[in-house]
Amino acid sequence: MISINNLTVEFGGFTLFKQVSFIVNTRDRIGLVGKNGAGKSTLLKIFAGFQAPTAGIVSLPNEIKIGYLPQQVNHIDGNTVMEEALSAFEEVLGLEKEIAEINLEIAERTDYESEEYMKLIERLTDRNDRYHMMGGENIEAESERTLLGLGFLRSDFARQTNEFSGGWRMRIELAKILLRRPHVFLLDEPTNHLDIESIQWLEDFLKTYPGAVVLVSHDRAFLDNITNRTVEISVGKIYDYKVPYSQYVVLHAERREQQLKTYLNQQKQIKDTEDFIERFRYKASKSVQVQSRVKQLEKIDRIEIDEEDTSQLSLKFPPAPRSGDLVCEVKNLSKAYGDHLVLNELEFVIERGEKLAFVGKNGEGKSTLVKVLMDEIEYTGTCKLGHNVKIGYFAQNQAQMLNENKTVFETIDDVAVGDVRTKIRSILGAFMFRGEDIDKKVKVLSGGERSRLAMIRLLLEPVNLLVLDEPTNHLDMKSKDVLKEALNQFDGTVIVVSHDREFLNGLSSKVYEFTNKKIKEHLGGIYDFLQAKKMDSLKELEVKNTVASVQVEVASSDNKLNYLERKEMSKKISKMERAISNSEENIARFEEKIAEMEDMLANSENIQDQSLFAKYEKAKKDLEKEMSDWENLNEELELLIAEKGE
């Protein structure tokens, strides 16, 4: 599908790729890996046609459609969420408009026997066939299914896109790309703004998708569950492994070990040759040998290896000051923003030494509860911290609170104590600050770099309760390993809000699920929780199937739709009722037209008129389809009324 041949990319004298070649096949699931700055995002941009290589050829057939999701998107305002999702079906919407225009013209014309009229009928038939082949009647249902899978509520569909945060707007862009059904998906960190349930939905979608997928992700579990091929970018070269990420890690370690041995042998050979040249450079009797060694040195294809792997760095938090056995006690805690209730009468306790994971769909109150714990917002009920509890808090806005006029090194040196001060460069290296990076001023750092720096500061503070809100969004896999190991060794209490299953695996001993304004406690790790959730979902499905016929009568008050959802449902019901009314008008028109043609066919003079027969048969088919559509619309209306509870 896509092939690159002898690809070279250079930036200001720095070579990012050197004569790289490989092919993306039809059903490939490729994970692009490599350290930050290796060129993963650049390669996706080149595939998508947004960047040209310095040299080499990128080949793909003209009919191939590319779906590209970058890390940053320029959003356009003026549409609702559903309208923006439906914009993915540009061709279908164009056909829909054209069909409506043709139908209007046909309804107004009476020259049934003219050549122009027959051409109009043929054009309508062609457009209808294309419309149905492209699934035109299902685009709203497809859009709804995709938006719900990515975490949106039905009540969100009619909201303007500019009402949503950047993360949610990225979900809208992802939905549009999925709905376009391209031949190749190019996804750059698609899970950064998704919760665990949305990530699992996206995994299921991509696993069964008939096209190719090329993605960049720091979510190890996501890569393992989707990819069947791992392409590593290292010092300008491509290493292609026909295995998922976890198997790649093992093969990569073996290759690196062999590469290092070869590199050391070559370095010894180079040094011996250089020593010989230097030693005998000015001896006439050795001039031939010296010149031979010089040429030999020039011909050597020097082996390059990536920077030293820092994933084995052992980083420890300072000993946690001892707190009381009861770290936090919550009773009857509720929080609402205006009329919107987020948390309702929560009750739980957190004990010293626990490592908890807060999970659930976005908007269910995880970050709100964190802000309550930090005493940043008002609430009702009680949230009482235990004796001598000292909190270390990480959130995205922490990065904006750093002193912009200090360097990266100074920022960490200010809080480092004891032996840690001798390891500052190694610690910074583990979090992707290397070489000249450590002398940069904070004010010139990107948002991601600031977040990583804020995380390092937190690692060095003497606290006994760590509260981390999405700590891994800007970390690569090695940095996440360093952080996870440090948290596992931390002797205090930890609360982590995260969607990264692999990061939470082996870290959390208890999972708090946020759902329906409450929290449910699940003992065990994150994969125990996920396994139980899948079983719960199956049980819920069975229950729904069993009681479907009496669902309206037995619906409990807890399942009543809130005001906004009822308002949105009322809009849908009104829209459906208008569609039914329009359909009934079409049926009446078709029946009238058929009756007219039956009268004409009853006349013996018209019995041989083939064009009249064709129009008659076409009208009957149109009526049959309209009747079917009318029945489907009425069924959908009944479901909507039942869902609303009227």
TrEMBL record:
InterPro entries listed in its UniProt record: AAA+_ATPase, ABC_tran_Xtn, ABC_transporter-like_ATP-bd, ABC_transporter-like_CS, ABCF_ATPase, P-loop_NTPase
Family to which the UniProt record says this protein belongs: Belongs to the ABC transporter superfamily. ABCF family. YbiT subfamily.
Classification via Pfam families: ABC_tran, ABC_tran_Xtn
Record-given protein name: Probable ATP-binding protein YbiT
Coiled coil: 566-643
Entry keyword annotation includes Coiled coil: yes
The keyword Acyltransferase is annotated on this UniProt entry: no
Organism: Labilibaculum antarcticum
GO molecular function: ATP binding; ATP hydrolysis activity; transferase activity
Keywords: ATP-binding, Coiled coil, Nucleotide-binding, Repeat, Transferase
Highest taxon of the lineage: Bacteria
Domain ABC transporter: 2-260, 328-541
